[in-house]
């Protein structure tokens, strides 16, 4: 018999998190959506309150000052994050690149520990105009010059770049080695030759700003390399499964749950032709489809997260989660707008924002088509997976 019940401490954590989101974050959603930024004083206030409750950097190890949550617990927290705006989640609970854990020596004191403590912000700079899902296809180059590296190139779609104090940037250090010739560097915001470009405003995720990064002979000492030379892509990929499970899988489930609850409430209130629209079988069918798909995605997320916590490597399963959960969210969002009708298309209602926010989940951290290819290759190589 499999026990799917949650430990009491996990239940208490989730209840604290729900209350914090409901009382501290959701009241600011309309302002953040309209202004497309989180006021600095509000961000500081939210972060301070979250830290007091032990809700900051929850997914980072305890030995560096984080909450030390398991992958399962972090996915459950991410599910709750889906009930509010991404920008508010980032400001309150942190958005810390886990590859910072590769910091050593003075790097830990300058970058890792202050970031986990919420004193500075560090952003991850990998994506380039011609290298999105193909992370190994980057062109930004780091040329060795004596004891230094000189970086030239550009990045785009870099989340929180407008707020970051420092960045983890990938660059090619040895073109002859392909993916093994990519290294990671820690670069401060004020480094000569490094410029943070324009904000690239998006269709959704407003206030989670994305920017261009430009490198023109930006010189860095060897000490700014993160991890061994040639390990930059490996560092990113070694932690990306947990990101895909939590920030994509768990978050998609939470957003879908919010959309379904809004749809249920509306179906019970809205009347057409003299009766509640929830009495119509077509509306009932859409609600049933929502609930079934959300349940399936949630079980997928938690199963793959549990295997991760057991030290297993459920790579193909994580691709299934990323693919299915993101596509599920798109279908649920579409059905929710359909149930609301014209009001669902109106900016006065939350559906319009959630519909826009949902679309990118099928793109970032590997587009759905990429993950379908990963799943297929695994099947062709290994045969039927043990599920």
UniProtKB/TrEMBL annotation:
Keywords assigned: Flavoprotein
One Pfam family in the UniProt entry: Acyl-CoA_dh_1
Superkingdom of origin: Bacteria
All residue ranges annotated as the Acyl-CoA oxidase/dehydrogenase middle domain in the record: 123-217
Record InterPro entries: Acyl-CoA_DH_CS, Acyl-CoA_Oxase/DH_mid-dom, AcylCo_DH/oxidase_C, AcylCoA_DH/ox_N
Domain Acyl-CoA dehydrogenase/oxidase N-terminal: 8-119
Span of domain Acyl-CoA dehydrogenase/oxidase C-terminal: 230-380
Record's keyword annotation contains Transmembrane: no
UniProt name for this protein: Acyl-CoA dehydrogenase family protein
């Amino acid at each position: 018999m499999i026990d799917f019940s949650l430990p009491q401490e996990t239940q208490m954590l989730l209840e604290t998190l729900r209350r914090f989101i409901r009382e501290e974050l959701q009241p600011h959603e309309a302002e953040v959506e309209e202004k497309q930024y989180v006021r600095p004083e509000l961000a500081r206030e939210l972060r301070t309150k979250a830290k007091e409750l032990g809700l900051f950097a929850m997914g980072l190890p305890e030995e560096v000052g984080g909450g030390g949550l398991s992958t399962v617990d972090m996915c459950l927290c991410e599910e709750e994050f889906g009930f509010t705006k991404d920008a508010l989640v980032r400001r309150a609970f942190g958005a810390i690149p886990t590859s910072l854990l590769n910091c050593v020596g003075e790097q830990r004191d300058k970058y890792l520990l202050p970031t986990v403590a919420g004193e500075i912000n560090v952003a991850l700079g990998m994506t380039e105009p011609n290298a999105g899902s193909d992370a190994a296809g980057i062109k930004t180059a780091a040329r060795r010059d004596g004891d230094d590296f000189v970086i030239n190139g550009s990045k785009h779609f870099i989340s929180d770049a407008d707020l970051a104090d420092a960045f983890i940037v990938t660059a090619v250090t040895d073109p002859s080695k392909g993916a093994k010739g990519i290294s990671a560097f820690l670069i401060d915001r004020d480094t000569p030759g490094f410029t943070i470009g324009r904000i690239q405003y998006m269709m959704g995720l407003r206030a989670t700003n994305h920017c261009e990064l430009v490198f023109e002979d930006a010189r860095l000492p060897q000490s700014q390399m993160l991890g061994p030379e040639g390990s930059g892509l490996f560092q990113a990929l070694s932690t990306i499964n947990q990101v895909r499970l939590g920030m994509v899988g768990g978050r998609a489930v939470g957003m879908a749950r919010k959309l379904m609850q809004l749809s249920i409430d509306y179906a019970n209130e809205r009347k057409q032709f003299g009766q509640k629209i929830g009495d119509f079988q077509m509306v009932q069918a859409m609600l049933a489809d929502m609930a079934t798909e959300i349940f399936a995605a949630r079980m997928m997320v938690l199963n793959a997260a549990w295997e991760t916590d057991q030290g297993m490597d459920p790579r193909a399963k994580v691709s299934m989660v990323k693919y299915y959960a993101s596509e599920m969210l798109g279908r649920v969002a579409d059905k929710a707008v359909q149930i609301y009708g014209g009001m669902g298309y109106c900016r006065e209602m939350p559906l319009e924002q959630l519909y826009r926010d949902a679309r990118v989940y099928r793109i970032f951290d590997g587009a759905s088509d990429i993950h379908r290819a990963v799943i297929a290759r695994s099947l062709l190589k290994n045969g039927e997976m043990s599920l």
